[in-house]
Design goal:
By secondary structure, the protein is α/β, with parallel strands linked by helices. The chain is built from 11 helices and 8 strands. Strands 1-2-4-3-5-6-7-8 form an 8-stranded mixed sheet, with helices on both faces.
Length: about 290
């Protein structure tokens, strides 16, 4: 257990899965578990500043989606959100996670919801979703056609210029250099498949899972997130939900406002995980991990 007042260390590791190895970051040793899923095409680095803020109260685990960050990809394009979620839930199983709350942004919101659905409401105590892509058919067709085109690479580095321009356009022109660097790095690291999970999220309809989910859902959004209106749509579908909107930000709450994001997650999740069976099997959480 963490010493009171001490910032817990974030450790990294891998677990084996059906598509290869899944890379993760973990902080804390509490029985209450939080699972974090990033937006495409980023990685668990999205939550690097968030995990230590939660590790004293929870076991907080952020995964690299298969094919992103340092996680191995599926054998080919065309896997769907339920396939990705099954692999990530198996990774959580391997880490000894029992009861948990999944949290995700954009593609990660679809993964969080689907992971909760597959785990079931007795195991997944709720969900924190930021920008779940609940799309109309017209929006779905537009995103699939335009949002994430295939890219190439060349010796002049045009892929980097393209990626910088992309994030200045879709995040904001004044995005801080360190955030641009993170996004461009993560996209170009897996350039040949950066759009695989994007397109899986665009093909996926989270509507039925939202309507059927019986446990509380928090929609946690930046005021100007491109999918904030989709979360308002989703609120009308979910039986028990609430929304917190952080003013003045264009998106990327875990990166731009990690303290506020962590505080809202903790306040929502602590009551949900305060009872019931243990969230973590301690014997399975520390094998092969490194700072």
């Amino acid at each position: 257990m963490a010493v009171p007042g001490e910032v817990p260390a974030v450790v990294r590791g891998y677990v084996d899965g059906p598509w290869g190895q899944i890379h993760y970051r973990r902080c804390g040793s509490s029985e209450a578990a939080l699972l974090f899923f990033h937006e495409s095409p980023l990685s668990s680095r999205t939550y690097e500043a968030v995990l230590p803020l939660l590790g004293s109260e929870f076991t907080a685990i952020a995964f690299d989606t298969p094919g992103y960050g340092l996680s191995d990809p599926p054998a080919a394009e065309g896997r769907e959100i339920p396939d990705y979620a099954a692999v990530l839930l198996a990774a959580a199983d391997a880490l000894g996670v029992r009861r948990f709350v999944p949290c995700g942004v954009h593609t990660g919101a679809s993964l969080a919801l689907e992971t909760a659905r597959q785990a079931g409401p007795d195991r997944a105590a709720g969900a924190v979703l930021s920008g779940v892509p609940l799309l109309t058919e017209e929006e779905r067709a537009t995103f699939l056609a335009e949002w994430a085109p295939p890219i190439g690479i060349d010796g002049e580095g045009s892929q980097y210029a393209w990626a910088i321009a992309r994030y200045q356009r879709i995040w904001s022109p004044d995005t801080a250099p360190e955030l641009l660097h993170l996004a461009v790095h993560d996209l170009t690291l897996n350039w040949s498949r950066y759009n695989w999970a994007y397109n899986a999220a665009f093909r996926h309809d989270p509507g039925p899972a939202l309507a059927a989910w019986p446990n509380p859902v928090l929609f946690l959004d930046a005021e100007h997130d491109m999918l904030v209106e989709h979360d308002r749509r989703a609120m009308a579908v979910v039986p028990e939900s609430s929304m917190v909107t952080v003013e003045g930000l264009p998106g990327q709450l875990p990166l731009r406002a990690p303290k506020r994001y962590a505080a809202e997650v903790a306040a929502f999740c602590a009551p949900l995980l305060s009872g019931g069976h243990a969230g973590i099997d301690p014997s399975l959480t520390t094998r092969g991990e490194r700072p």
